[in-house]
Automatic annotation (TrEMBL):
GO biological process per UniProt: sulfur compound metabolic process
GO molecular function, one term: sulfite oxidase activity
Domain Moybdenum cofactor oxidoreductase dimerisation: 287-404
The keyword Oxidoreductase is annotated on this UniProt entry: yes
One Pfam short name: Mo-co_dimer
Stored InterPro entries: Ig_E-set (IPR014756), MoCF_OxRdtse_dimer (IPR005066), Mopterin_OxRdtase_euk (IPR008335), OxRdtase_Mopterin-bd_dom (IPR000572), OxRdtase_Mopterin-bd_sf (IPR036374), Sulfite_DH_SoxC (IPR030835), TAT_signal (IPR006311), TAT_signal_bac_arc (IPR019546)
Secretion signal, residue range per the UniProt entry: 1-31
Organism: Cereibacter ovatus
Keywords: Metal-binding, Molybdenum, Oxidoreductase, Signal
Cofactor names: Mo-molybdopterin
Record protein name field: Sulfur dehydrogenase subunit SoxC
Oxidoreductase molybdopterin-binding domain span: 114-268
Length: 420
């Protein structure tokens, strides 16, 4: 649906503009001197390329060396307990390559061989069990695409526009196809006692990362995963085994999963009391806000992906997601939220996964105030930052899903701004 006051070219106007632009480009090309890149023989036309054994494990080509995860050095005291950010401004589609996928550690990424891996299930169970990696591979497996988003993604934006680039404002997220065993299958092997209502999930790293997980979620869609995007998990993503908790904050997705204890109440550990709770304006903190609400971001144009082509056809591209379901629609505004147009969703919208959207416009070179808002299948509409602040104040760190604004300048530069 498009608002009645929506602006923007229709398809016929867009195609006419594109055709006119092509004609002008063709005329300019005829008038310009020959381009040696196409009129003359180049080195790669006459010399051998690399053989098939040059890179036994394929690597990104060096021409794309800027497409990397990035850290913000002042964000934490030490990189061992820190975060780096997915270059979402430079990626397309929805699947995040593992080598670019955001990572967060609390005591560094550990080196745990498959042969030494063990997973223990104990507590309020009929049969305490220990599984090896080979044991897990014997269970029927499933493949699912899910996003993982840190609860602190966009957290610095609570106080206003802070970081100039969607890699830094929204890059604590990735979207991968996970392969693993449904957690309910392992719990069924152990046999949960009737009084078992909660799980404590714990990692094998030095931080002993642990979170309380309600049994209803554990028996629903949680995976014990050992592959991502068709290959083994990377070291920084929890190799050899991690938890996948679809739609819920990334801190719940415990890496190097080593222990699951069944109990009758939550454990109230550090990461669910002093951390990963939402501090309100009056100083009180909300807890158990696990689900990630609907959110979206325009990845191009954006501060790290400026407009280089001048006036004419422009593709606005972005990502939308919801921890409560799939994405039903995305609206895009060119004027800071006064008018909205419905974006084109690319491909089917999967449950609790990233969705790519596009809006194709004819840019006249004037300033744009770009915004996007997501609508999920529950009917939830992504709010503005001011709407969130009116309810929660500015003391929070987590669960900032307010609408982001980019200022596109006539020269093609893009800046992170807020509209008052």
């Amino acid at each position: 649906m498009t608002d009645s006051n929506a602006t923007g070219p229709n398809r016929r106007h867009f195609l006419a503009a594109a055709a006119a632009g092509s004609a002008l480009a063709a005329t300019a090309a005829r008038a310009a001197p020959p381009d040696p890149r196409i009129t003359e023989v180049q080195d790669w036309n006459v010399s051998w390329g690399d053989g098939v054994d040059a890179t036994p494990y394929g690597l990104p080509i060096h021409h794309e060396a800027e497409v990397i995860r990035r850290n913000v050095p002042w964000l934490t005291a030490d990189a061992v307990s820190s975060v780096n950010f997915t270059p979402i401004h430079a990626l397309e589609g929805t699947i995040t390559p593992q080598g670019c996928a955001f990572e967060r550690h609390h005591a560094g990424a550990i080196d745990l061989p498959k042969a030494d891996y063990r997973l223990m299930i104990h507590g309020l169970v009929d049969r305490p069990l220990v599984f090896s990696y080979d044991d897990l591979e014997r269970f029927p497996r499933q493949n699912h695409v899910y996003f993982l988003e840190c609860a602190a993604n966009s957290g610095m934006e609570w106080a206003g526009a802070q970081l100039n680039g969607c890699q830094f404002t929204h890059g604590m997220i990735h979207n991968m196809e996970y392969t693993g065993v449904p957690l309910r299958a392992l719990l069924a092997e152990a046999g949960i006692r009737p009084e078992g209502k909660w799980l404590l999930v714990e990692g094998a790293d030095a931080s002993a990362m642990s979170r309380s997980l309600p049994i209803e979620k554990a028996l629903d869609d949680v995976l014990v995963a050992y592959k991502a995007n068709g290959e083994a998990l990377r070291k920084e993503h929890g190799y050899p085994v991690r938890l996948v908790v679809p739609g819920w904050e990334g801190n719940m997705w415990v890496k190097w999963l080593r222990r699951i204890e069944v109990g009758d109440a939550p454990w109230e550990h550090r990461e669910e009391t002093s951390k990963y709770t939402d501090t309100m304006a009056d100083g009180r903190s909300r807890r158990w806000t696990w689900e990630m609400d609907a959110k979206s971001i325009i990845t191009s144009p954006s501060p790290q992906a400026r407009v280089n082509h001048g006036r004419g056809p422009m593709v606005i591209s972005g990502l939308a997601w919801s921890g409560r379901g799939a994405i039903r629609a995305v609206h895009v505004s060119l004027d800071g939220g006064r008018n909205w147009q419905q974006a084109r969703l690319s491909g089917p919208s999967h449950d609790k996964a990233l969705h790519r959207f596009y809006l194709d416009i004819d840019w006249d070179g004037s300033e744009l105030l770009l915004q996007s808002r997501a609508v999920d299948t529950t009917g939830y509409v992504q709010p503005t930052k001011d709407q969130l602040r009116a309810i929660r104040g500015v003391n929070s760190v987590y669960h900032m899903n307010g609408i982001q604004t980019w200022l596109v300048k006539p020269n093609g530069e893009v800046e992170n701004v807020e509209i008052s």
